[in-house]
Amino acid sequence: MALDPPLWSSRHQAGLELAERLRASKRIKADSMIIALPRGGVVVAVAAGKQLKLPVVTWSVHKVSDPLQPELAIGAVGAGNVAVWRCGAIARPRGSGRS
């Protein structure tokens, strides 16, 4: 099975590209900040934050995995009863009546 090559040479490089895309979007406000998720996201966020001169904060969350595909994240839960679910058909709430 052939694997696709990574899109970036490193997480740092990914952060630099993210910064450029954010800058181009012109959606950065004076009070903006970069929120980094530990385990990989911190390096990306720090690179983007430095480029954009924005503060970087970390937020620890727990990944909610798809029971049939444990590496696939379908959501995350964090402090303060925050739950974020992946958009799309896979993340429909149970009992919604849709198939």
Give the topology:
Layout: H1 11-25, E1 34-36, H2 41-52, E2 56-58, E3 61-66, E4 69-78, E5 82-85
Parallel strand pairs: 1-2
Antiparallel strand pairs: 3-4, 4-5
Helix pairs in contact: 1-2
Q: Can you tell me about this structure?
A:
With 99 residues, the protein is of the alpha+beta class. It has a domain at 11-22 and 32-88: Rossmann fold. It is 27% helix and 26% strand. The protein has 2 helices and 5 strands. Strands 3-4-5 form a 3-stranded antiparallel beta sheet, with no helix packed on it. Helix 2 (41-52) links the parallel strand 1 and strand 2. The protein starts with 10 loop residues before the first helix and ends in a 14-residue tail after the last strand.
Q: What's the gyration radius in Å? A: 16 Å
Tell me the major beta sheet. 3 strands, antiparallel
Total beta-strand segments: 5
Uncertain residue ranges: 88-99
The helicity comes to 25-40%
Output the number of helix runs: 2
Strand order of the largest sheet: 3-4-5
Please give a handful of descriptors for the protein shown.
99 residues; alpha+beta; Rossmann fold; two-stranded parallel ribbon; 5 strands; disordered C terminus
TL;DR of this structure?
The protein is an alpha+beta fold and 99 residues long. It has helices spanning 11-25, 41-52, and strands at 34-36, 56-58, 61-66, 69-78, 82-85. The protein has a domain at 11-22 and 32-88: Rossmann fold, CATH 3.40.50.2020.
